[in-house]
Amino acid sequence: MSLGSLRALARGDAAADRVVPPTGFTARLTLFASAAMCFLAVFALALSLAAGRLASSWGDELARSSTLRISAPSGEQAAQTAAALRLLEQTPGVARARALTEAEQQALLEPWFGPDLPLANLPVPQLIEIVEDATGYDAAGLRLRLQAEVPGAVLDDHTRWRRPLVAAASGLRLLGWVSILLIAGTVGAMVTLAANAALAANAQVIAVLRLVGATDAYIARAFVRRFTLRALTGAAAGVALGVVAVLLMPGAGSTAGFLTGLTFVGWHWIFPLLVPPLAAAVAFAATAAAARRVLGGLS
Fold first, then answer.
1. Does the UniProt entry include the keyword tRNA-binding (predicted)?
2. Strands 94-99 and 65-70
3. Positive or negative CA dihedral for 128, 132, 133, 139?
């Protein structure tokens, strides 16, 4: 459509609007499909953005940290821990290293063994947290030095854990965006179905309008405007419900579950506001294509 047609579409025409039935099956179908799909789109957006944050968090945090595990007899563990800390202080690329306290190790084991684990009576390895600087350290070289000077030390640079976790989070993010594309396609298909049904049901009215001089552009504009507004109304209702549902989801700090933090953060809240206009644009294009096809067939 031309710019003039778009302006006429935005202004509306009471006479043209009467061509399209204001109620009925097609109206309910368009409203319900738009509301349901946009409700799901909000969750798909939240999933995609949360997965992106998760991938960045895992990538950044695990990439800059490592763990040194010292397994030695109780009489030698303190000496090997001290030797390992001295070696780490002399290692280029290590910003800081510290041995975890008994309370910290207890907190790490508590989710699996409970709060009453007698840590002092168990042969639990001593853990040392290593934080890299911007340049990073040579993990292979450090392992060789540890093997020679601290035989009971095992270095874990988190590489084998970080890569699959980041890949999984990135896959979830991609799945979210693919879901949004499928939702947009579904909205377009449902609106096309409803528009085709409405045009076919009003074939006699369209024939009379042509007899009195109405152009196909005038008739199409009436259908396009009505179905676009219906899709916009349904999408707005669906997004509103979706945002409320997202706000009711547990926050990241209330539980340690994987899906916590499934919400919008900061400027990401603008994305749900874009869903209704995009749904209206999809409905606009779908109805315009359906109107051209059906009106051409009725000629």
1. no
2. unpaired
3. positive
Q: The tokens of 52 are what?
A: 């992106």
For 257, phi and psi rounded to 5 degrees? -65, 160
The partner residues of 128 in beta bridges, in order of sequence, read 68, 99
Q: Which residue has the tokens 């594309």?
A: 181
For 4-19, write each residue's pLDDT tens digit. 555 655 565 555 556 5
Q: pTM of the predicted model, to two decimals?
A: 0.64
Return the structure tokens found at 274: 């874009």
DSSP tag of 92: T
266 and 124 inside one domain: no
Token output for 201: 């049901």
Clarify whether residues 108 and 7 are in a common domain: no
Nearest in space to 186 (alpha carbons), one of 36, 48, 24 = 36
Instruction: Kindly state the tokens that stand for 179.
Output: 């879901």
Task: Give me the mean pLDDT over the 72-98 stretch.
Answer: 83
Look up the domain containing 97 and give its range. 72-151
Residues 120 and 94 in one domain: yes
The pair phi, psi for residue 296, each rounded to 5°, is: -65, -35
Instruction: Please check whether residue 143 lies inside any domain of the structure.
Output: yes
